[in-house]
Amino acid sequence: MLTLSIAAPLIGSVVLILMRGLDERAARIASLGVAAIPFVLLVLVWIRFDSGATAPQFQSVEEVSWIPSLGVAWRVGVDGISLSLALMSALLFLGALAWPMENRERARQYFAWFLFLEGVSLGLFLVLDLLIFYVFFDLSLVGMFFLIGRWGHGEAQQAALKFFIYTLAGSLAILLAIIALVLVTDPLTFDMRQLIADQPVQGMDTRAGLILLGFILGFAVKTPLFPVHTWLPPAHVMAPGPVSAILAGVLLKMGTYGIIRIPFQMMRETFAAYALPIALLALASILWGAIVALGQTSLKQRIAYTSVNHMGYSVLGIAAAGALITGEEAARQLALTGSVVEMVAHGLITGALFLIAGSFWSRAETYKIDDFGGLAKVAPRMTAATIVAAFASLGLPGLAGFVAEVQIFVGTFAVYPWIAGIGLLGILITAALFLRMVQDVFFGDLPARWSGFPDLALRESAVLAVLLFFVVLIGVYPRWLLTLIESATSTIIGG
Predict the structure, then answer these.
(1) How far apart are CA 73 and CA 62, in angstroms?
(2) What is the DSSP string of 361-395?
(3) What is the rounded CA–CA span in Å between residue 431 and residue 149?
(4) Going residue by residue through the chain (495 aa), what tens digit of pLDDT does each one get?
(5) How far is CA 274 from the centre of its chain?
(6) Quick one: residue 403, left, alpha or beta (phi over 0 = left, psi -120 to 50 = alpha)?
(7) 363 C-beta neighbours (distance < 10 Å), count
(8) Is 433 helix (H, G, I), strand (E, B) or coil?
């Protein structure tokens, strides 16, 4: 089922390209039908998933030899972390495909590239071969490059080029690190499960440190973390709303997921030695993202910088979990679990926020916060959706963001109390910037030119209702998600 989950959207993208003459509506329906396949299959995998303490970490494994001399094979499988991220991604892709196009040109190609990006994104989360992981990591750049460059607005091509160059440079650092890591194995293998079990660089100092640096640098660009985040705001601002939703909700998680799966799990000793610098890097991202977001006058830029802030939370939890401090195993597992919940929550919340931002552009062709005001009078559904998403992003209890952040900070306090204490300032600043944004855009006097501002259409409301339903569900009853994620984090921390 996992192979089909990856193959279905990839095949669908090719078929859609070949089916000339399809209008936007037909192309959308076809793409939604294809995108529903991996979502249904992953739900079935989830239903069958064994979260018990004695269950194997990786389940639903499929393996076919590919390049035996290099130890490369088509290997797919899931643990609680990869399955939760894959499910979130599949849901978000359905929402993005259903959302109205901002630029209605070349609709068939637009949906085809979306399906291609979905296939490679799910592939990255589901594969258990390090070389194929890298292939999907690189291919994700291609899909996003074309979606931003061809269907964006303003200086979209320049933003797409900056995104591609930055992230390609990061992926090359990852490739060098992968080669260096694999070359010390005997026999040669790219099997992630074997690399996790063998810990190939254990006992090495300088070489292991350089390999870790390559991985952290590459994944930091993708996440992104301060100071290699500068590609993100222009990419978001120039991209259509649905593309921004996938960029923030799915592609950024490739960086944090990569940190967990590769250096964290395959280089435990080395990662622990550098856990404090990684935690400090995360802290810088938390504070920088929040402070800079507070100063933005563009709705979309403000949301974009909060992604730097929130991904900092996730990396902070990973760093605390990897510190290998004796006697704090429970706290470290809590931090790692919170980090993964943060990835899922951020994907849903920020995905919804960027879809809403896209609706502003399609109606007003501006993101400038000061241009709006009083929209609650004419757009109550948009107001309600934005308030729920904004409150979730600032970590209000009862919503998904709170569940993630409380686990991260409680776990981190046990390992790095002073870093956790300073990091809490990021939550305060985030609360201020979102409350100010909601007030300025939706309350106060309504400018005369927005008296006919259209509210969310039925389709837009339905998409946001689904995404925000899961945001509320995770906040109110997180047990169903925590059980899945903890089945992996308990094994990782305990192993």
Answers:
(1) 10
(2) HHHHS--BGGG---GGGT-HHHHHHHHHHHHHHTT
(3) 33
(4) 899 999 999 999 999 988 887 888 888 999 999 999 999 999 999 999 988 878 888 999 999 988 888 888 999 999 999 999 999 999 999 999 999 887 777 888 999 999 999 999 999 999 999 999 999 999 998 999 899 988 887 787 888 888 888 888 889 999 999 999 998 887 888 999 999 998 888 877 788 889 999 999 999 998 889 888 888 888 877 888 899 999 999 999 999 999 999 999 999 999 999 999 999 999 999 999 999 988 888 888 889 888 899 999 999 999 999 887 666 788 999 999 999 999 999 999 999 999 999 888 888 878 888 888 888 889 899 999 999 999 999 888 999 989 999 999 999 998 999 999 999 898 889 888 888 999 988 888 888 888 888 889 999 999 999 999 999 999 999 999 999 999 999 899 875
(5) 24
(6) alpha
(7) 17
(8) helix
CA dist 81 and 203 (Å) reads: 28
How many contiguous H segments (helices) and E segments (strands) does the chain have? 21, 2
Count CB neighbours of 14 within 10 A. 12
The pTM assigned to this predicted structure is 0.94
CB atoms within 10 A of CB 259: 27
Those residues whose C-beta lies under 8 Å from the C-beta of residue 62, and which sit 6 or more positions away, are 2, 3, 74, 75, 76, 77
Which residues contact residue 401 at a Cβ distance below 8 angstroms, ignoring those fewer than 6 apart? 342, 345, 346, 349, 392, 393, 394, 395, 471, 475
Backbone angles phi, psi at 55, to 5 degrees: -75, 150
Structure tokens at 299: 């709705």
Report the candidate in 156, 130, 27 with the shortest Cα–Cα distance to residue 72. Answer: 130
3-state secondary structure of 127: strand
Tell me which residue has tokens 């068939």. 108
Domain boundaries, the chain: 2-494
Q: Determine whether 106 is exposed, middle or buried from the number of CB atoms within 10 Å of its CB (0-12, 13-18, 19+).
A: middle
From residue 261, alpha-carbon distances to 106, 254, 276, 381, 456 in Å are 37, 10, 19, 40, 39
